[in-house]
Specification:
The structure holds 3 protein chains of 3 kinds. Chain A is mostly helical. Chain A contains 15 helices and 2 strands. Chain B is built from 11 helices and 14 strands. The chains are: A mainly alpha, B alpha/beta, C mainly alpha.
């Protein structure tokens, strides 16, 4: 592997180590908690990026996977399964649900797909509100994945680990043949199909990966905040926030979701502490300004302006001969 | 990439350092409530109630010779944000005592975080009883809970004709479900048969189908657990489907709103409805009327009990700090535990296992006015039973 | 049987209001292919406009909805010119993001201006009933039904008959060719966005006496509008009106026979069924 010789690899590693080292020089739990949220949403954005960024399928139903992760963790634990295994089981269930959602929703294109994903997530929210096993609207107390004095540090590190895994998945998607297929689908689904890419299967695989990671994030988030209700863990607001983070940062770029999460969540927390009731107004204005002036997202816009390295070259559309591998 | 990471940390430290550590000039008290989101109206009532208490306390010299300053955190009507608020207020701003949050779900969510940080929490308004499940010595609740609502309503019914068949109509939220469960248990214990238990989706313009189902079950009593102004639509449509129980009872909030019996609310349709209430401007406790007048002067509207509970919570916090003569959380906690305020506009305040022993009143709207009709020692009017059928009104 | 028919009637009375909301969304989607996430916020603005007229000028909401609708038309046109037009060639992503941003701004602005208080109007008409044999209905609901149906019919004939309407349909069928035929794309898109906004506002005004008002009131209606528009076939104005009526009916009947907690679930299940089996809408033509 030439990986060890690449300066980018070493820079990334150093940044990662610094990122993971943060808890030891931040003694303040609040800052750590905000960092946890930022890191977790960066992971969520990266997971979403596989579907929304590389494959260009705008899902606004990712909260379904997020919620299944949290509720799955709670419910499996109640059934006597050890917590960490519960979290993994929840992620597997979420992946299975994603297979069902994908089978139906991926037959639809553009805005139709988006609306279908919203509908699935809403059905789950309503089900969780009405079922006994989920505690209804009254909610569930979450089992703790970590306990003790280092509670937030542990959650933070787990979020960093998840972000790294999601980042690697994105890295792979941006370099591999599979990733090129996804991007081909994004650019022109019909042409991609015509040259022999099994578009349905590619999109589905991307969604499955994404759902698995999103569910793990949901389990972490639910456990960190210790108590969940459908209106907090299955609300469309979370789907929207994940999408906004990625799109603001730059959908389909490696760093976009990370930049988006850092900027947006920092801004929203700072606005909240400064402006009280009017913080959402400022947040909205920020979104509008970015859409108007940075249409490809922050990272996307910068890349576009200065270099085009991280994007596949235009001629990277797969050759018919290569298409066979995806089938 | 490195620059971005540094920039990110830079921004982060910037916003965390925006809040300066005055500490010296004032005493900060942390408040978590819902300033935005679906419950913002109630968060506003909180803020108003707190501000009146704040000015009152500061006019009398504050606590320990310093003025109080309120440190607000907006939970955006979301439980996870409320948990973050605990961290902001306790870990960063180091407030010695917390008040909040507004809703039961946000409050339930912050209880473990507060207990873990060993900081006293005074809960002003959360009625779901699971907020007190933890039995943590750091948690105190000023208001009465859903079980108290159900028990008071059942007690009232038993003393006034002892009806046999009840229907519960509840909104499908935390508040609605908590109160439905509390009433289901209380009714069972009292031997009252539940002939219909119907949920509804709040904020909808049409509940006639739900009420038709209730009508078919033919109850003597309906217990409405309705949080918002759906109470207006419910009563109007009860009339339209000609549903005629002998008693309309309710778990407060929407049915206890100041506008509900007025022309801006349900108007005449509100007459004869019973509601549990924690406080009324006409309550007999000294200072109630003055609070109402002051509130109206400032905010051009009459207060609901949520504002009063927020007011009372801050009064408790200030009294406890003064009694403790210290800003140490543990000493404040002990002071709250031993507090005995004999006369506040919210009645006497004294905690037992963290729960203020607050009496629940039953009110009835008679000719457009709320009147306390139960318990007898607080009653100012006799209940009118049964409610006349719609065709005779 | 009486109960069944009564529930149908109640469902249609509400459904007509839904129809107006749905048509507004369909108009915007049809002409611009923008899924408008600010639709519920526009409805909320319409409610506040009607409320202000009621509160300050004692104007009955059933009259006040008209000036409110006109105000929303102008407002919608300005929003289009300032914020939507610059991004009309961008991806769905960015357009959706933009409408979400607009929705957030409007909701929070409403809270800053009007506070978060719940407000309601209680007009005389809302407490009257009309009776027909064993059936009864709220007089205000009947009136708002009539107004809503008038708008449905009026809008349809506008789209079919008028020159602007024809241009509008031409664009919704093929946005690339229409300009070649001498249609001013920007003007038509501006008009349809404004009209869509106005319809949301009008529906809000008509809804006001039956509901109550707070800054977040529109949120649920955004998702509901999506459901209607999909039921009727996205972009089809008649279809959306039909979708609104179906939604009203289904909610009323589900509440009566299964319980209200099922009503929203059934909404979305219906929505998913239509999307997966007949994406062109219940009786729409297949569209590419």
């Amino acid at each position: 592997m030439s990986l060890l010789k690449s300066w980018k690899f070493w820079v990334s590693l150093i940044i990662l180590l610094v990122w993971a080292w943060v808890p030891w020089f931040i003694r303040n739990n609040y800052q750590l908690q905000v960092l946890f949220r930022i890191t977790l949403f960066a992971a969520l954005g990266l997971a979403w990026n596989l579907v929304g960024g590389y494959a260009g399928q705008l899902s606004l139903g990712h909260v379904a996977f997020f919620g299944i992760g949290a509720y799955g963790l709670a419910i499996f634990t109640q059934m006597g399964v050890p917590v960490w295994i519960s979290a993994i089981l929840a992620a597997i269930v979420s992946t299975a649900v994603a297979a069902v959602i994908g089978a139906i929703a991926f037959r639809l294109r553009g805005p139709y797909f988006t609306l279908a994903t919203i509908a699935f997530a809403e059905v789950l929210r309503l089900a969780a509100t009405n079922l006994n096993v989920t505690g209804g609207a009254i909610g569930l107390t979450m089992p703790a994945l970590f306990v003790g004095r280092t509670f937030w540090r542990s959650f933070y590190l787990a979020a960093v680990a998840l972000a790294v895994i999601s980042f690697l998945a994105n890295y792979w998607a941006s370099r591999s043949r599979f990733g090129y297929y996804l991007m081909a689908i994004r650019e022109d689904e019909d042409t991609a199909g015509a040259v022999g890419i099994n578009t349905a299967r590619c999109k589905l695989y991307a969604l499955l990966m994404s759902a698995f990671l999103t569910a793990l994030a949901g389990a972490l988030y639910g456990s960190a905040f210790q108590f969940i209700v459908p209106d907090s863990i299955l609300t469309i607001d979370i789907s929207i926030q994940i999408a906004i983070i990625t799109m603001l940062g730059g959908a389909g770029t490696l760093l976009g979701p990370i930049v988006g999460a850092v900027l947006l969540l920092t801004a929203s927390e700072a606005f909240k502490n400064q402006f009280q009731e009017s913080h959402l107004l400022i947040y909205g204005v920020l979104i509008v300004l970015v859409v108007l002036f940075l249409p490809e997202g922050i990272v996307g816009g910068l890349q576009h302006r200065f270099r085009k390295r991280l994007k596949p070259p235009k001629d990277a559309k797969p050759q018919p001969a290569l298409g066979g591998a995806a089938q | 990439m490195r620059n971005k990471a540094i920039a990110a940390l830079g921004i982060l430290s910037l916003f965390t350092s925006i809040v300066p550590v005055w500490g010296q000039a004032t005493t900060k008290i942390g408040v978590i409530t819902s300033l935005t989101g679906s419950l913002a109206a109630f968060g506003e009532a909180h803020k108003n109630g707190y501000s009146i208490a704040l000015d009152e306390i500061n006019a009398k010299g504050g606590v320990l010779g310093k003025k109080i300053e309120l440190d607000f955190y907006d939970d955006q009507s979301k439980p996870d944000q409320a948990v973050q608020g605990v961290s902001k207020l306790v870990d960063q701003d180091q407030v010695p005592v917390l008040l909040g949050s507004y809703s039961s779900e946000s409050t339930k969510a912050i209880v473990p975080a507060v207990a873990q940080r060993e900081t006293p929490l005074i809960i002003p308004t959360a009625t779901a009883d699971n907020v007190m499940d933890s039995k943590s010595p750091w948690i105190f609740r000023v208001c009465a809970g859903a079980n108290d609502y159900a028990k008071a309503t059942i007690g009232f019914l038993k003393a006034n004709g002892a009806p046999k068949k009840m229907a519960i109509v509840y909104e499908n939220t935390n508040f609605g479900q908590s109160n439905m469960k509390a009433m289901t248990a209380a009714a069972k214990e009292a031997g009252i048969e539940l002939v219909a238990v119907e949920s509804y989706e709040a904020k909808s313009p049409d509940y006639k189908a739900v009420l038709q189902r209730v009508k078919q079950a033919n109850p003597d009593v309906i217990y409405f657990c309705s949080y918002l102004l759906d109470a207006t639509t419910l009563m109007r449509q009860t009339r339209e489907v000609d549903l005629n129980p002998k008693y309309y009872t309710s778990a407060g909030t929407g049915f206890a709103a100041a506008e509900f019996p007025t022309d801006k609310g349900a108007g005449k349709n509100a007459d004869y409805t019973f509601s549990v209430s924690q406080w009324l401007p006409s309550a007999k406790w000294a200072g109630s009327k003055e609070f109402d007048a002051e509130y109206f002067k400032r905010f051009k509207t009459h207060p609901q009990y949520h504002a009063m509970q927020a007011y009372a919570a801050l009064r408790v916090a200030a009294e406890a700090i003064n009694n403790a003569k210290s800003l140490e959380p543990a000493k404040i906690r002990d002071a709250i535990k031993n507090i005995s305020m004999t006369s506040t506009p919210f009645g006497p305040i004294k905690f037992e296992n963290g729960q203020n022993q607050h009496p629940v009143l039953i009110t009835q709207i008679q000719s457009g006015q709320y009147h306390v009709v139960f318990p007898p020692d607080a009653a100012e009017a006799k209940p009118i039973i049964p409610a006349p059928v719609w065709s005779k009104r | 049987m009486v109960r069944f028919l009564q529930a149908c009637a109640d469902g249609l009375l509400t459904g007509a209001l839904y129809a107006v909301i749905g048509m507004g969304l369909a108009l915007i989607f049809g002409v611009m292919r923008i899924v408008n996430f600010a639709h519920g916020a526009f409805l909320m603005v319409g409610m506040y406009a009607t409320y202000v007229l009621f509160d300050y000028f004692k104007l009955n909401p059933y009259i006040g909805f008209l000036p409110a609708g006109i105000a929303l038309f102008i407002f919608g046109y300005l929003v289009y010119m300032a914020l939507i037009r610059p991004i009309r060639d961008r991806s769905h992503f960015m357009q959706i993001l933009m409408t979400m941003g607009i929705g957030l701004i409007l909701t929070d602005a409403a809270q800053l201006i009007f506070k978060a208080d719940y407000r309601q109007t209680n007009i005389d008409l809302i407490n009257r009933s009309v009776h027909l044999g064993p059936f009864g209905a709220n007089a205000a609901e009947v009136l708002s039904f009539a107004i809503a149906i008038a708008f449905v019919v009026g809008l349809r004939s506008f789209v079919v008959r008028s020159r602007t309407g024809q241009a509008l349909r031409a664009i919704s069928q093929n946005a690339e060719i229409a300009p070649l035929m001498g249609i001013n794309l920007v003007r038509i898109q501006g008009i349809s966005f404004a009209l869509g906004t106005a319809l949301a506002g009008i529906a809000g005004g008509l809804l006001l006496p039956r509901l109550y008002l707070f800054p977040g009131v529109g949120e649920d209606y955004t998702t509901k509008a999506f459901v209607m528009v999909v039921l009727g076939g996205m972009g089809s104005i008649e279809g959306a009106a039909f979708g609104g009526l179906v939604l009203g009916l289904s909610e009323s009947l589900t509440s009566l026979y299964l319980g209200n907690q099922w009503a929203l679930i059934i909404d979305f299940v219906l929505f998913l069924l239509v999307l997966s089996f007949k994406p062109a809408g219940i009786f729409g033509r297949q569209r590419a």
